[in-house]
Amino acid sequence: MSKPLTVSHLNVYPVKSCGGIRLGAATLDRWGIQNDRNWMVVDAENRFVTQRTQHRLALVETALGRERLTLRAPEMAPLELPASGRAGPERTVTVWNDTCRALDQGDAAAEWFSRYLGQPMRLVRIGAGFERTVNEATYPTGADVAFADGYPILILSLASLAALNVRLSEPLPMNRFRPNVVVDGCAAFAEDGWTRIRIGQVTFELVTQCERCVVTTVDQASGISNKEPLATLATFRRKDDAVVFGRNAVHQGVGTLHVGDGVEVLA
Questions:
Q1: What domains does the chain contain, in order, with CATH numbers?
Q2: What phi and psi values does residue 137 have, to the nearest 5 degrees?
Q3: Opening angle at CA 10, ends 27 and 201, nearest 5
Q4: What is the number of alpha carbons within 13 Å of residue 85 lying toward its C-beta?
């Protein structure tokens, strides 16, 4: 008898490219899992900053309570921010080729990240008037996304990670790949063939395979980068000019997901 498909892990990443938080339950809003990538570090040109160029962001730990977002990093005093965000001045910020309006989170946050990363930085957050949508070429019906690279949800299976790890000299944890929803009970790379699934009362459209970047090579415990897993993934997970691992998804409506929920493949 085959094992049922279930949600194994749920993760939220409040600040883009900083540490994530394991959840027992996750509420979905219009942008994805509530608070996911709602904050973002930007440089002096108001362009997004990630572990691609700043590996030390991996060491920024996040803790999210009902009232406060708390950030901790090596040799830094904790930074506390309102979970609902500060009503700061608007900034026009850039995420890849998208330009959108975000709220500056104040000088204390800017000084904290500037000192930690060694160059001028600001922290911004989505606000009530924030507008950004996924790529219309791949999802023409339209969907909202916060500061995630391109889509509100990333789905990956435990079996796919296990299939990668048997090819590596040192196995990697799931946090290298920063998924929101981890699925158990399927064969390796079964998610490649899913186009629509349902978890609880929420339906997800699996839109594209996730193209992986240098962030996957950054050890999330040390902030040190090496060639893996991209070198190995490139030997068996290449699509055109990209290395793919996991699926980008769009949720249909809002609701709450729980670890242990069944996953139904609809198409």
A1: 6-265 (2.40.33.20)
A2: -65, -30
A3: 45
A4: 21
E strand or H helix that includes residue 203: strand 202-211
pLDDT tens profile 182-202: 999 999 999 999 999 999 999
Q: Which of 58, 60, 86, 94 is nearest to 75 (CA)?
A: 60
- Distance separating alpha carbons of residues 63 and 206, to the nearest angstrom: 29
Q: How far apart are CA 89 and CA 93, in angstroms?
A: 12
For residue 218, the 8-state DSSP code is: B
Give which of 180, 174, 190 is closest to 7, Cα–Cα: 180
Q: Is 195 helix (H, G, I), strand (E, B) or coil?
A: coil
Q: Which of these, 206, 191, 181, 216, lies nearest to 33 by C-alpha position? A: 181
d(CA 218, CA 235): 19
Q: pLDDT per residue over 135-171, tens digit each?
A: 999 999 999 999 999 999 999 999 999 999 999 999 9
